[in-house]
Design the sequence.
């Protein structure tokens, strides 16, 4: 049988006739003349014809022609064009036909098949080498690549396991090869074998200490294993030596930033960009009190895994899989061409085209992400629409139930509140705004359940609008007057200029548990008229100690954990009044009214609310009129709430300065429980 192919191109671009040569297995094959040097075509045909008669002097000619074809294939492959690569493939096919036992030719052909995308043919060549030489690290590495590509396409866990097995074999056979260890890292990570992935990354770095990709592997596996400090330092050390296209992936905040942030960043000069990025990541830092920025490290770790799995060096980018991975992390489920999804692409005009569809599910975010391989090259893109925004974003209702996540500005990304290795610890925290002698005074308190002898550390930090620290403190929580045997608390305070601040409160224990709280707060300048502080629910009356010489009395407020009132006990609330107007005798006069109202929302649809309105809970009010010397009043209000049903309520406080005729209000929310909630 004779197989004829199209004429090949000469060096001048002209067409030439195909050369048909017999193969030693009885088949014949067409060889492009571009595979051979001038004069070699006839010699090759003669050598093969003679070789059919058996071994002899023709064997040397046959081996020589195979070597010539191999060298020619390497030259063609180096050109990088599609036509040259196809010619190289035909040359190598002929070389392996002439000298089938020469494993170098088989290896070169297998690698070329892999790059072209002929995965089945590549696998056969690598398996042939493996069978002939069980200690061939190259064959094991090639099979690892083939099965990795198969897993990425079909999501078959068996293919993932085969890839890991072959990469592991290659690394054992050639332990000094950084590439084998490096290829293992993301695959072991996908198997949830984090310790093994970290060990492979360390071996890759030991084999190539200066290789930036090996540093990346160590950095992100260190982060996943809870080695936060090493992760940060190794990331920073790796970035300068990365190829520019890779380095830009780590510097780019576009996937998780809002459109406004992205537009602003593009307009800035390089020096300004660095400051903008610093502030951006500080604003998204879930634990403001820690030295590391856990959200940025999480982002870098996602980028590293996406870079190893989805980055296309030829395109200098990744596809939609990489984009979704860095925004939301690994999906909880991935489906290739599910039955419920259409697998055709419809355009405004013309026929429908087949597509492969990949669906990533994030049930914890209330979101499914659909991606299409529209040109069937395993490059996934977002579906298109002329009238809808198809940018995948989490469901706000699902996010409202996730206090363990921090959502990026614009809602285009989410980050865990805690880094890997840190276990959550339940904490209650509150901020309250008061006035001090020199201006606004910010008070913060954090509480947790704990025995008096438990080793705990609490920290707070306050950042200004430039995300620069203006206050930081650290202390051991003490026994809380609310429940000295079971509750620990720590409070902090700072006098600050008027402005907007970011505040973080963090509590850690010796077992690696961590409770994190962060909030934004506005501190207003004094108005020289009646103003009220924030109202806070407390455990009884605040403690006032004797003042130091020349100073003001010290005040200790113990905030009620979770603002939760249980049993028949009253609700006790503390607040302060400032700048009450004094008359000619120095006496100020005021009256206040405190009213408790239900804060429960009726979640039923509007027609149910209309047809069957729920009975209103009657408001509870209390008030009094007083006078005192001076313009500052520290006030405690106790309201009996024992008869209230369980639920959420709000206490509204209205104060009237009787001398000035001015009003001011404040409020506090609380929860009423018949019995204390578990863990309170």
Sequence:
């Amino acid at each position: 049988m004779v197989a004829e192919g199209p004429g090949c191109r000469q060096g001048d671009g002209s067409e030439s006739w195909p050369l048909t040569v017999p193969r030693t297995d009885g088949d014949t094959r067409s060889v492009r003349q571009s595979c051979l040097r001038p004069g070699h075509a006839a010699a090759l045909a003669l050598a093969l014809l003679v070789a059919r008669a058996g071994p002899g002097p023709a064997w040397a000619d046959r081996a020589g022609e195979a070597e010539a074809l191999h060298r020619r294939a390497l030259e063609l492959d180096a050109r990088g064009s599609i036509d040259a690569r196809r010619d190289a493939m035909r040359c190598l096919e002929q070389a392996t036909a002439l000298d089938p036992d020469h494993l170098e030719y088989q290896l070169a052909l297998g690698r070329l098949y892999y790059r072209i995308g002929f995965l089945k043919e590549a696998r056969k060549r690598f398996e042939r080498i493996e069978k002939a030489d069980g200690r061939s690290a190259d064959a094991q590495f090639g099979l690892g690549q083939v099965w990795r590509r198969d897993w990425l396409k079909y999501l078959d866990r068996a293919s993932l396991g085969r890839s890991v097995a072959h990469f592991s074999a290659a690394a054992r056979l050639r332990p000094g090869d950084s590439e084998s260890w490096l290829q293992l890292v993301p695959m072991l990570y996908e198997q949830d074998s984090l310790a093994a992935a970290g060990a492979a990354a360390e071996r890759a770095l030991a084999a190539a200490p200066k290789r930036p990709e090996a540093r990346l592997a160590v950095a992100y596996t260190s982060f996943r294993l809870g080695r936060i400090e090493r992760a940060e330092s190794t990331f920073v050390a790796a970035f300068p030596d990365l190829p520019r296209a890779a380095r830009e992936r780590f510097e780019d905040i576009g996937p998780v930033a809002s459109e406004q942030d992205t537009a602003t960043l593009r307009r800035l000069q390089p020096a300004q960009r660095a400051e903008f990025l610093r502030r951006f990541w500080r604003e998204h830092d879930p634990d403001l009190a820690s030295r590391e920025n856990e959200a940025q490290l999480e982002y870098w770790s996602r980028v590293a895994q996406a870079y190893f799995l989805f980055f296309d060096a030829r395109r200098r980018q990744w596809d939609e899989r990489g984009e979704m991975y860095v925004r939301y992390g690994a999906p909880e489920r991935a489906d290739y061409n599910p039955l419920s999804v259409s697998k055709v692409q419809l355009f405004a005009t013309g026929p429908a085209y087949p597509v492969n569809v990949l669906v990533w599910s994030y049930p914890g975010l209330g979101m499914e992400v659909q991606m299409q391989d529209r040109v069937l090259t395993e490059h996934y893109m977002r579906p298109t629409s002329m009238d809808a925004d198809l940018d995948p974003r989490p469901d706000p209702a699902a996010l409202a139930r996730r206090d363990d996540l921090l959502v990026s500005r614009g809602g285009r990304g989410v980050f865990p509140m805690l880094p890997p290795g840190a276990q959550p610890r339940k904490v209650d925290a509150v901020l309250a705004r008061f006035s001090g002698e020199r201006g606004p005074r910010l008070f913060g308190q954090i509480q947790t359940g704990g025995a008096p002898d438990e080793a705990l550390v609490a920290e707070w930090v306050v950042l200004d609008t430039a995300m620069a620290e203006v206050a930081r403190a650290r202390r051991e929580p003490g026994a809380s007057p609310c429940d000295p045997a079971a509750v620990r608390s720590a409070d902090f305070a700072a006098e600050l200029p008027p402005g907007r601040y970011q505040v973080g409160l963090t509590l850690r224990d010796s077992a690696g548990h961590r409770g994190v709280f962060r909030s934004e707060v506005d501190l207003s300048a004094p108005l020289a008229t009646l103003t009220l502080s924030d109202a806070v629910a407390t455990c009884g009356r605040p403690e006032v100690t004797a003042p130091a010489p020349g100073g003001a009395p010290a005040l200790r407020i113990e905030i009620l954990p979770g603002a939760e009132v249980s049993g028949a006990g009253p609700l006790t609330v503390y607040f302060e009044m400032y700048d009450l107007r004094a008359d000619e005798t120095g006496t100020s006069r005021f009256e206040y009214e405190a009213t408790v109202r239900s804060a429960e929302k009726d979640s039923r649809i509007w027609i149910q609310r209309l047809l069957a309105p729920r009975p209103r809970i009657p408001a509870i009010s209390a008030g009094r009129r007083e006078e005192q010397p001076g313009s500052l009043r520290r006030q405690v209000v106790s309201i009996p709430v024992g008869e209230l049903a369980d639920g959420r309520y709000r206490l509204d406080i209205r104060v009237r300065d009787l001398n000035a005729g001015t009003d001011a209000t404040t409020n506090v929310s609380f929860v009423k429980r018949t019995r204390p909630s578990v863990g309170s």
